[in-house]
Automatic annotation (TrEMBL):
Matching Pfam families: Fn3-like, Glyco_hydro_3, Glyco_hydro_3_C, PA14
Top enzyme class: hydrolase
Record's catalysed reaction(s): Hydrolysis of terminal, non-reducing beta-D-glucosyl residues with release of beta-D-glucose
Protein name (Swiss-Prot/TrEMBL): beta-glucosidase
Single GO term (MF): beta-glucosidase activity
Gene3D superfamilies registered for this protein in UniProt: Galactose-binding domain-like, Glycoside hydrolase family 3 C-terminal domain, Glycoside hydrolase, family 3, N-terminal domain, Immunoglobulins
PA14 domain segment(s): 389-551
Keywords: Carbohydrate metabolism, Glycoprotein, Glycosidase, Hydrolase, Polysaccharide degradation
EC number: 3.2.1.21
Organism of provenance: Sporothrix eucalyptigena
SUPFAM superfamilies on file: (Trans)glycosidases (SSF51445), Beta-D-glucan exohydrolase, C-terminal domain (SSF52279)
InterPro entries in UniProt: Cellulose_deg_GH3, Fn3-like, GH, Glyco_hydro_3_AS, Glyco_hydro_3_C, Glyco_hydro_3_C_sf, Glyco_hydro_3_N, Glyco_hydro_3_N_sf
Family indicated by similarity: Belongs to the glycosyl hydrolase 3 family.
């Protein structure tokens, strides 16, 4: 396809055609104008995989580990390969634009989308974002860094005002975006839902014009988050090029009106259209047709890379008495609520149907040559597990009217294997004359494998009732309370109990009505979703009995893995976590198993920190995050030593929630969130306050040992470089990798600064006895500067700066040196 003559097209487009280009035509496509060779561009989530064009009943995909897991690798080369994999998947699904990576700073461990982001540190986040973008765009696909800026909580995310100092905004929250722009030049950027200091980010001329396009010289396209455009003239004037999704809500005829009354000039529209056309032109070499079919590329090579990334992300937090690695020939007991499920991803827009997902039990059983037993011990769900865990498939029939209407007509039917359904992009084949609600009947046969009380549950965006053998068990239609499910449009969980007999067949049916039937206030929801439903069912366990069973198995085993943690029900877009602790009886289970068998490793799956009140008794702990398709095999690789852990924590694990810097100010209060901790986020706060933590930022152990020496620091103000080199030797008997973390501290700053700050890092892989020199290059001005609010510039002060290099932020054997900045300078830009 020939390149677009942007200026010629701009001259030829009518005003109405220009306006049409300013918003999407549907959930995932931009507006085509065939007479000028302008195709419809397809976009797709997301941060850890390419879903394609369907949130409901979509095609399967390669799911990478979550953002925190990727950052835990501290391996930019590997993360770049992950970006390349995402791009290849995108092209196969006809996608030209990936809506990721997520680059927001993890201000609190409770943030619902914290697992999507990389780190609490802006330098690590920026480096991982740049590596991801470089990998994606090396294939000609566009990355979209998001969400600019201060989108780090789900509570009232569309209306809350992030009140943050200019210094913290620049040094902590905007810096990852700045680094990604400097190092990888992403072609697109997505604005956040929230306000920043009183103005919504999607219409803020300071953020979009002065900082992004002016100071940082960003020449790419800026799009809104889905439903995150709140004005017409203001957003266009600020430089929000593309409103998503379509059809337009804030543009279209409203732009006509703004032009007619003089609030907008055609030049304002031209500026946005020009960037959209230039962006489109960059994507033409892909040769993707407007309505390309979606294909999958589930190959051995894809699986191997996913496994490598997942294994490289697992952090060995503790390993007393060399409990790990396990011996393959010994008997192994795998216990815990996450053992027989694959917690491969968090929830929300990062979720997607995987090609496959390996559970920890299956991964361990495939590696072990000894006996492998399993016990659940307890559950970790905040609601019953999906009913499709025990009814593998449900029939789904779509109707134009409710069951009470005998003349209703079935318009669609299918079989589903997933009972958490969001009808964001499903449109039943109804005539154009039909308006309002539509309905679904779900049906399946349940044959319990044990007699007992079963808990059924529904959460809905819409209305629903669940019946067992014709008897009403759950009524999610009459009384509803909004609790943030389905991106803020859904109810909380509504329950019902019934006793069922083993091996007896029961007919389970659910009658569901679309969002238009909901009695709740769902302002604006009509443009975002047709509704949703989650159907849960689980046998009620006797916790004491299950723990006793797990303990009995643990006593008989040579070695035990307790796989615990969170899942997509706890960490998701749409809501924040309420507590730091593990849910349910997991702490009781872990304590009991640790007491029964001292050769026990605790494997935790979560995207953000969890409390560990049993840590003193645990000899070995792995942080395994959400590991994507290869979750189970990656855990087995590290447990049995086929992969030597080299990951490091990308965020601090606090001892208590009360110790966290945002404890008193996380969440919105009457529409505002005060960032009272200022620049002291994460380890910056803990070190400044002298606060003990569970595990420090950058911490991570190995099955081998390393020695470091010969630190050399070379700083040049003229060339703006800071080069730190050191010698690293593997002094152990296994091959492994060492991450050198470079921290910088100013001795006599004119303002309060953190004790030290990460400014660079490098990773080197060494065989037993091997020794190498590792060099970490950095920008001197980035390594030394703070944001001067009076000068509205970065300030690099005349002073002496100390350099600390080690294996974590709390390494007691850090190498130290210093350098001198001879003259104070102020600077702006990249």
């Amino acid at each position: 396809m020939p390149p677009l003559d942007v200026e010629a097209i701009l001259r030829g487009l009518s005003l109405q055609e220009k306006i049409a280009l300013l918003s999407g035509v549907d959930n995932w496509h931009t507006k085509p104008i065939p007479r000028y060779g302008i195709p419809s561009i397809r976009v797709s989530d997301g941060p850890n995989g390419i879903r394609g064009t369907k949130m409901f009943n979509g095609s399967p995909a390669a799911c990478l580990p979550c953002g925190t897991a990727l950052a835990a690798t501290w391996d930019t080369a590997l993360i770049q390969r992950g970006g390349e994999l995402q791009a290849d998947e995108a092209v196969a699904k006809g996608v030209s634009v990936i809506l990721g990576p997520t680059v927001n700073t993890q201000r609190s461990p409770l943030g619902g989308r914290g697992f999507e982001s990389f780190s609490e540190d802006p330098v690590l986040s920026g480096a991982m974002a740049a590596a991801t973008v470089a990998g994606i765009q090396s294939r000609g696909v566009s990355a979209t860094i998001k969400h600019f800026v201060c989108n780090d909580q789900e509570h009232e995310r569309m209306k809350q005002d992030s009140r943050v100092s200019q210094r913290a905004l620049r040094e902590i929250y905007a810096l990852p975006f700045q680094i990604a722009l400097r190092d990888a030049k992403p072609w697109a950027l997505m604005t956040s839902y929230n306000r920043v200091n009183g103005v919504h980010a999607s219409e803020d001329p300071y953020l979009l014009k002065e900082v992004l396009r002016g100071e940082w010289s960003f020449d790419g396209m800026v799009m809104s988050d889905w439903g995150g455009t709140y004005s017409t003239a203001e957003a266009i004037k600020a430089g929000l090029d593309l409103e998503m999704p379509g059809p337009s809500f804030m543009r279209g005829s409203l732009v006509n009106h703004a032009v007619a009354c003089g609030k907008l000039h055609e030049d304002d529209i031209d500026a946005c259209v020009r960037r959209i056309l230039e962006f489109t032109d960059k994507l033409l070499p892909l040769g993707i047709p407007s309505n390309a079919p979606e294909q999958t590329v589930d190959t051995k090579e894809t699986a191997a890379l996913l496994r490598q990334v997942a294994s490289a992300s697992i952090v060995l937090l503790k390993n007393q008495n060399k409990v790990l690695p396990f011996a393959k020939e010994k008997s192994t007991c795998v216990i815990g609520p996450n053992a027989k499920i694959a917690a491969y991803s968090g929830g929300g827009s990062a979720s997607l149907p995987p090609y496959y997902a390996v559970t920890p039990v299956d991964g361990i059983a495939a590696v072990s040559t000894g006996r492998v037993d399993h016990a659940v011990g307890c559950v970790a769900d905040n609601k019953p597990a999906l009913i499709t865990n025990i009814i593998p498939q449900l029939s789904m029939a779509v109707y134009d009217a409710p069951p009470s209407n005998p003349a209703r007509r079935k318009v669609d039917d299918m079989t589903i294997r997933e009972a958490n359904l969001y009808f964001y992009d499903y449109h039943p084949p109804l005539p154009s004359s039909h308006c309002g609600a539509w309905y679904i009947d779900f049906a399946g046969t349940l044959r319990p494998d044990a007699t007992g009380e079963y808990l059924f549950s529904l959460s809905v965006a819409g209305t629903a009732r669940l019946f067992v053998d014709g008897a009403l068990v759950v009524d999610a239609a009459t009384h509803q309370t909004p609790e943030g499910t389905f991106f803020g449009f859904g109810t909380g969980e509504i329950y019902g109990r019934v006793r069922l007999e083993k091996d007896k067949d029961y007919a389970v049916t659910v009658e569901w009505g679309s969002l238009a039937t909901s009695p709740m206030q769902t302002h604006g929801a009509e443009s975002m979703t047709g509704g949703g439903i989650r159907i849960g069912c689980a046998r009620q366990l006797d916790v004491d009995e299950e723990i006793q069973r797990a303990v009995a198995l643990a006593r008989q085993a040579d070695q035990v893995a307790v796989v615990a943690g969170l899942n997509a029900d706890w960490e998701s877009e749409g809501f924040d976590r309420g507590a730091l602790g593990l849910p349910g009886a997991q702490n009781l289970l872990i304590r009991a198993v640790l007491a029964a068998n001292h050769n026990t490793a605790v494997v935790l799956q979560s995207g953000t920190p969890v409390a560990m009140p049993w840590i003193a008794a645990a000899p070995a702990v792995l942080q395994a995050w959400y590991g994507g398709n290869e979750t189970g095999r990656a855990i087995a690789d590290v447990l049995f030593g086929d992969a030597n852990p080299s990951a490091k924590l990308p965020l601090t694990f606090p001892a208590r929630l009360e110790d966290t810097p945002a404890f008193l100010s996380f969440g919105a209060e009457r529409g505002r969130t005060l960032y009272g901790e200022d620049v002291f986020v994460g380890y910056r706060f803990y070190e400044k306050a002298g606060r003990d933590v569970l595990f420090p930022f950058g911490h991570g152990l190995s099955y081998t040992e390393f020695a470091v020496d010969a630190l050399c620091v070379d700083a040049s103000e003229a060339d703006d470089h800071l080069r730190v080199s050191l010698c690293v030797q593997n002094t152990g008997t296994r091959g492994g990798a060492y991450v050198a973390q470079v921290y910088v501290s100013q001795r006599q700053p004119s303002i309060a600064r953190p004790v030290k700050e990460l400014k660079g890092f490098g990773k080197v892989f060494l065989g037993p006895g091997e020794r190498q020199t590792l060099t970490v290059p950095m920008s001197l001005k980035y390594a030394t500067s703070f944001w001067d609010e009076q000068k509205k510039s970065w300030a690099m002060e005349k002073d002496t700066f100390d350099v600390f290099v080690g294996g974590s932020s709390a390494d007691e054997k850090m190498l130290t040196s210093f350098f001198v900045v001879s003259e104070t300078r102020w600077w702006n830009g990249l």
